[in-house]
């Protein structure tokens, strides 16, 4: 496959959507051109910020004191604000992400062995599966949202007092009302797609580092076995080990670059995901306990919304868990090889890699927590604790 085919295979729809949003870190574009915000990026961020996030935050202020209304509007506002943050962070760190994309392209070019490419394709396939799950959940969320908004639009179009998708009291006249309503619908779709695209992009970047760590561990084991079998000299072994150490440092640096770009926004993501799952569950609980007359489509939408949030959070936790495992496996790979057949001097050189692998590589949430499957469970338990507090406040 060519480089473009490799990147398309890895990033699938993520590449197209990030390009549409004007934030795809293409290494072929000059840095000066990339640092200037594109028209597409400005249009998308302004649409989401002004027509989705701003009205929702105003509605939160208006609903102050009414716990049920505040929770309902705050949940939607969180999601749109998170989308704006992810878009801005991806654009702001464009220079660093371009270096990472260049490194990925170089990895596909320099991998000449079939087993190396097979490992990369295997991990890339898992990234595609995660991306596909996010895409399905995002598509379903968009369909549900547009269906509800269109039903609301046609129901209120001939009413004397018409409400927008995201309520703004002062807009009633035609065609300003219709245009604003459609822009808000597009803004809602952009919100979902922005969250999906960035989530998939980050998880695939992390999984690519995992694939390179697996390949590096295999190369190290093969090198040690060759020396143990007297197939190479000690000097050739030292040259190969030096190249492995340099490559290992390069992968560690790439993992830290990914974490440095997205650590802050992922901290916000965890907080907002916790509050959102709490607030949506609170809405469903309120509908059931208070016997509110709510369309069944609305209940399905809220349930699907929670599923979407969990799917996106799981992509981060799975990729980060895999990164922790593969980074520490470098040390275990040294233990499992035939180091006992080497001379004491050659075996001592392996301790450099062992010491460097004792601290696992992590994807952090603002340096306060580490993404893992354990964090996924902790987030669910925390959101249920907040739900209990909200129900106590309501009562």
Question: Could you describe the 3D structure shown?
Answer:
The protein has 395 residues and is mainly alpha-helical. It has one domain (28-394). Helix content is 81%, strand content 1%. The chain has helices spanning 3-20, 31-35, 39-62, 67-92, 94-110, 114-156, 176-228, 234-289, 296-336, 344-349, 351-357, 373-394, and strands at 364-365, 369-370. The protein has a two-stranded antiparallel sheet with strand order 1-2. The protein is elongated, with a radius of gyration of 25 Å. The N and C termini lie far apart (62 Å). The model has no long low-confidence stretch (mean pLDDT 82). The chain crosses the membrane at residues 38-54, 74-92, 130-151, 266-288, 300-320. Keywords: Cell membrane, Membrane, Olfaction, Receptor, Sensory transduction, Transducer, Transmembrane, Transmembrane helix. One of its GO terms (biological process) is signal transduction. This is Odorant receptor. Its main location: membrane.
Summarize the biggest pleated sheet.
Answer: 2 strands, antiparallel
> Poorly predicted ranges (pLDDT <50, ≥5 residues)?
none
User: How would the global form be characterised?
Assistant: elongated
Separation, N- and C-terminal Cα atoms: 62 Å
Strand order of the largest sheet: 1-2
Would you report the number of β strands?
A: 2
> What is the typical, i.e. mean, pLDDT?
82
Taken in chain order, the helices and strands follow as: HHHHHHHHHHHEEH
Percent in helix: over 70%
Per DSSP, the total helix count is: 12
Radius of gyration: 25 Å
Number of domain units:
1
Structural class: mainly alpha
The share of residues in extended strands comes to under 5%
Organism: Temnothorax curvispinosus
Family: Belongs to the insect chemoreceptor superfamily. Heteromeric odorant receptor channel (TC 1.A.69) family.
Keywords: Cell membrane, Membrane, Olfaction, Receptor, Sensory transduction, Transducer, Transmembrane, Transmembrane helix
Membrane topology: Multi-pass membrane protein
């Amino acid at each position: 496959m060519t480089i473009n085919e490799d990147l398309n295979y890895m990033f699938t729809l993520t590449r197209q959507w990030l390009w549409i949003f004007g934030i795809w870190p293409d290494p072929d574009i000059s840095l000066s051109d990339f640092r200037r915000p594109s028209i597409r990026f400005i249009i998308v961020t302004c649409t989401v910020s002004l027509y989705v996030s701003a009205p929702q935050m105003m509605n939160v202020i208006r609903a102050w004191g009414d716990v049920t209304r505040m929770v309902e509007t705050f949940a939607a506002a969180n999601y749109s604000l998170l989308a704006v943050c992810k878009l801005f962070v991806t654009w702001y760190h464009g220079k660093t992400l371009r270096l990472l994309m260049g490194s990925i392209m170089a990895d596909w070019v320099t991998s000449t062995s079939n087993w190396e490419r097979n490992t990369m394709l295997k991990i890339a396939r898992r990234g595609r599966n995660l991306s596909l799950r996010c895409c399905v959940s995002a598509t379903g969320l968009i369909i549900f949202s547009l269906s509800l908004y269109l039903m609301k639009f046609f129901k209120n179009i001939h009413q004397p007092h018409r409400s927008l998708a995201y309520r703004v009291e002062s807009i009633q006249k035609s065609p300003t009302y219709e245009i604003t309503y459609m822009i808000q619908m597009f803004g809602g779709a952009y919100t979902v797609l922005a969250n999906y695209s960035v989530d998939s992009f980050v998880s695939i970047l992390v999984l690519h580092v995992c694939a390179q760590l697996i390949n590096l561990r295999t190369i190290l084991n093969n090198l040690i076995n060759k020396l143990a079998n007297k197939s190479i000299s000690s000097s050739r072994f030292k040259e190969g080990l030096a190249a492995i150490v340099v490559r290992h440092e390069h992968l560690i640096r790439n993992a830290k670059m990914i974490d440095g770009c997205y650590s802050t926004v992922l901290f916000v993501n965890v907080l907002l995901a916790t509050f959102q799952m709490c607030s949506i569950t609170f809405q469903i609980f309120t509908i059931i306990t208070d016997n509110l007359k709510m369309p069944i489509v609305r209940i399905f939408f809220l349930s699907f919304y929670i599923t979407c949030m969990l799917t996106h959070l799981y992509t981060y936790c799975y990729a980060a868990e895999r990164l922790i495992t593969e980074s520490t496996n470098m040390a275990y790979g040294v233990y499992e090889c035939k180091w006992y057949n080497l001379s004491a001097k050659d075996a001592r050189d392996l301790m450099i890699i062992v010491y460097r692998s004792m601290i696992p590589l992590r994807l952090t949430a603002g340096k306060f927590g580490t993404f893992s499957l354990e964090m996924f469970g902790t987030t669910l338990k925390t959101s249920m604790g907040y739900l209990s507090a909200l129900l106590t406040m309501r009562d």
